[in-house]
Amino acid sequence: MSAKNGLWLAAALLSLTPVVAAAAETTPAADASPVDAVWVRHERMFSFMGFTSHYSCDGLESKLKTLLRLAGARDDLKVYGSCSEPRGGPSRISTARMTYWTLALPGSPQAAPRAADTRNLAHAPKELQAADAPVAAVGQWKKVEVHAGRTRDVEGGDCELVEQFDREVLADFTVRNRASRYSCVPHQISLNGIQMNFEVLAPLPKAAAPKPVSR
After folding, report:
1. What is the pTM of this model?
2. Residue 141: is it exposed, middle or buried by C-beta count within 10 angstroms (0-12/13-18/19+)?
């Protein structure tokens, strides 16, 4: 091969590199094939006391709803905030009562029927105190990436909140290939502090949520 031809071939290969890289980025990592699953109801108390960011009741409710939906919870989730400051103002300590449905694989420990957790829920709405049996559904594996500044409604100041959500709440979801990393520094905001990455068993796109089983 002549030197001229060799240079031409090298230039051609270099020109293809961005195309190959772009194709790799757009290829979904998760398997989009339908998966038999069941909806399972969860009830959880979430108490937050951050150093960097303080949330109002409405603000905490909004952030938790965003994270629950990103993680694959069904759209009919409920979040009720309770704060140490009057409603509308940021609170040093914020608490939320949450009820939400997640998909689980049939026969897995997460799919086992569970009773309602009534601890600290005596004054919660009735729908939050109720328990339901799993409901048959179909889902698919979905790749989730949550990064501050690149994910809607997630900011650098949410680092401590997202990390706590990952540590406490994500256990209720059916996930795999977790590769999350956090670098939350008190009283500092960093756009690189949140790297929440995993695959979750999530509802099919635009699928209608099945109605809970009547009793």
Report:
1. 0.72
2. buried
Among 53, 209, 63, 40, which residue's Cα sits nearest to residue 113? 40
Average pLDDT of the segment spanning 124-144: 72
Q: Tell whether the model's pLDDT for residue 111 goes beyond 90.
A: no
Calculated CA dihedral for residues 113, 119, 124, 128, nearest 10 degrees: -10
Sequence spans of domains, the chain = 35-203
- At 191, list the tokens: 């756009």
Residue holding tokens 């965003």? 66
Q: How far is CA 123 from the centre of its chain?
A: 27
- The full DSSP string for the chain is --HHHHHHHHHHHHHHHHHHHHHHHHS-SS--S-EEEEEEEEEEEEEE--SS--B-HHHHHHHHHHHHHHTT--TT-EEEEEESS-TTS-BSSEEEEEEEEEEE-TTSGGGS------TT-TTS-HHHH-----EEEEEEEEEEEEETTTSTT--GGGHHHHHHHHHHTGGGS-EES---EE---TT---TTSEEEEEEEEEEPTTPPPPPPPP-
Residue 198 sits at the vertex; the CA angle it makes with 74 and 22, to the nearest 5 degrees, is 110
Q: Is 94 left (phi over 0), alpha (psi -120 to 50) or beta?
A: beta
**For the segment 5-21, what is each residue's pLDDT rounded down to a tens digit?**
443 433 433 344 333 33
